[in-house]
């Protein structure tokens, strides 16, 4: 019976189903009963074998009919926007129904697929519903294919009017896009139709729009306004694209690439041409904008970096050159100026480029150039030609690691020609440090925090100094003076500074030596105390002793002979005897050129306390036996036994001490330089000597004639710079050996890189120096060239 | 102070007192450097200058080795000198002077 009945199931059911289906298509209200009936009918039909295809065909016909009517409604509109509106309205309706209508036909779909098991159904659920596909395909084939070109064109026209500033219902464009996306029946690439039509058209239209607009804007308003225009448009287009283009696809990105090309890349040269001027004029807002634009273009930022570097280098050097008279004389002004430049450039980089790392690197690179430039000042390191080492003093204190290389390497190396002038910056930095750490008008004027921040500034600049070894040498010399003359403004700060130097990566052996000097001073103070407790009160009152570790303090081994005033001479054995009791196995060397004291000088004007060096003391005491006599240079030399250069220098400091009105010693004939003293030049004590303060003569008072305490003799001063070079040679050798010991075999270029890396905290080795030292090491069989490749070196154990 | 006056009066012609002297010493800050009284200033064992702490001491407390004053020098009967730290390790393996091969016995220690 069921069989009989079933033959007519579809025919029976369809008349009931059809009106409901039509209602659904037209989005007319459907009662719940009708909705449920539809489910039942579909079920019924599907029970019949032949039912499903019949139902499908009937359904298709109805859908087609509906679409045809819709098409007619849409096509009734001739005017574009009206057409678009009508289409969108119909499409919306239809599309909504695409989601409802298929529901009652689930079973139909299942039977059409020939699978009824529930598990399969579940599995197939993600599949596009057949009815839905039927609906969309039909729509696509009939209505959309017919008018899609028109739709697309008018959508693009709408977007264009929007670009020109008119407002319209964006849903119209979005609707067209949705049609494209949803109507695609290619399941593997749903966006295919959309991409080939809508996206392509959109991008092309955008490009065409700006292709005309952009050059127009640029020529009308110039680069600066154009940049703003481009930036705004890029933002606008991005927002617009997010609205009109399919999200979750590459569309927006694709569009933006094209926009950047047409808006920015095409005018890259014109825009970048403005960069140097903007940097010069510190136009941070504009630069910021430029960076934003150029960052979108490949290789866009590089020219900006170059411009920044050039600007910093030129502006920095020009600035230095403009003030060359002041800054070469005054290390405070020099450092302040350098810091000022640094701050200026840093502000620029911060404000214009948001501290972008690429720009920071450019700043560092260019600033380094300014700091190390040698056109403002030169520190001439000696050039040695030919056979080296004959006149050399043994290289000043060489630290353990170097010595550990072996005595062979420790001996004097071959000639070096590192005669390139170097910037005086490290020396001036060290001088500035000294001014901050010593008791000076500057350090007294500043608060503790200010000094600290200025010291930090010094470290900041120091970071850019290539030849840090020069700084270290001067810094150590200054520290030595401060400690020996006891002129440190703040010992805590002194020790902090040492730690900071360690923190910024100064070589440990150097920093350790500085720290050891502080330790040594403390030890020496205790020793002095003990000495005073043990010896005669008379001596204790008039002598302080500093007995220091030669390893940490000494600079070269040179001593100067001097015939001390008897009174001083008498103290020496007592000190030595005391020291011998305290320590054993030690020998003492007196450093009279570093020692100093206070003497009382009385003449007809008054009595004065004068701080003097021991050499000055030796000279002055010569007059004690004959206060009013004129003594010739020759006789002073005999009396003091000072070497000629030292005597000249000492006498000069007594008769031409800077900044005092009345000198202690008078020379006849007067001279302009210590070199002009002849053997016969006469000297006498100025009985008119007095301290002049504010134009008034003082009868009492204290004056300091020590000046800058001399740490080395005239001769060894010349050798001082020599020893910098000397030490550099050893450092290069040491570093080469270190690297080869580790690598066993290394190419020339890699060796150079690693060398610079190891040595950069001390100095920048010149190519020439490296080459010479490699030759020296090869000659002395520390390393050899590789048999097959002369540019590879091999370690020889 | 009295002593100076005495000195002055002794050295000058007797009746001059201190005030009449042209220059009188008030204070002398004498500077001297000490170093180990050695013939070779490098320790043959660690190759570091004897005035510096030995390599081991430097490595042990990189930061505050300078505070230790105890890396001293030792002299053998042969008059060769080394860091005491270096030598005391050396003699554990070989009780001879590394330079002259004489049997090692300590002549004196630095202090």
TrEMBL record, chain A:
Record-level Gene Ontology MF annotations: ubiquitin protein ligase binding
Domain (Cullin family profile) ranges: 424-655
Keyword Ribonucleoprotein among record annotations: no
Domain of life the protein comes from: Eukaryota
Any one annotated GO CC term: nucleus
Pathway participation: Protein modification; protein ubiquitination
Pfam families given in the database record: Cullin, Cullin_AB, Cullin_Nedd8
Compartments reported by the entry: Nucleus
Gene3D superfamilies on file: Cullin Repeats, Cullin, Chain C, Domain 2, Winged helix-like DNA-binding domain superfamily/Winged helix DNA-binding domain
Keywords attached to this entry: Isopeptide bond, Nucleus, Phosphoprotein, Ubl conjugation, Ubl conjugation pathway
InterPro entries (UniProt xref): Cullin (IPR045093), Cullin-like_AB (IPR059120), Cullin_CS (IPR016157), Cullin_homology (IPR016158), Cullin_homology_sf (IPR036317), Cullin_N (IPR001373), Cullin_neddylation_domain (IPR019559), Cullin_repeat-like_dom_sf (IPR016159)
Major localization class: nucleus
Any one GO BP annotation for this protein: signal transduction
Family label: Belongs to the cullin family.
Designated name of the protein: Cullin-5
TrEMBL record, chain B:
Domain RING-type stretches: 54-101
Protein name per the record: RING-box protein 2
Entry EC no(s): 2.3.2.27, 2.3.2.32
GO-annotated biological processes: intracellular signal transduction; proteasome-mediated ubiquitin-dependent protein catabolic process
Similarity comment: Belongs to the RING-box family.
Subunit structure and binding partners: Catalytic component of multiple cullin-5-RING E3 ubiquitin-protein ligase complexes (ECS complexes, also named CRL5 complexes) composed of CUL5, Elongin BC (ELOB and ELOC), RNF7/RBX2 and a variable SOCS box domain-containing protein as substrate-specific recognition component. Also interacts (with lower preference) with CUL1, CUL2, CUL3, CUL4A and CUL4B; additional evidence is however required to confirm this result in vivo. Interacts with UBE2F. Interacts with CSNK2B, the interaction is not affected by phosphorylation by CK2.
Compartment annotation: Cytoplasm; Nucleus
InterPro entries: RING-box_E3_Ubiquitin_Ligase, Znf_RING, Znf_RING/FYVE/PHD, Znf_RING_H2
Entry keyword Ribonucleoprotein: no
CDD domains: RING-H2_RBX2 (cd16466)
Pathways per UniProt: Protein modification; protein ubiquitination
PROSITE patterns hit by this protein: ZF_RING_2 (PS50089)
Pfam families hit by this protein: zf-rbx1
Domain of life assignment: Eukaryota
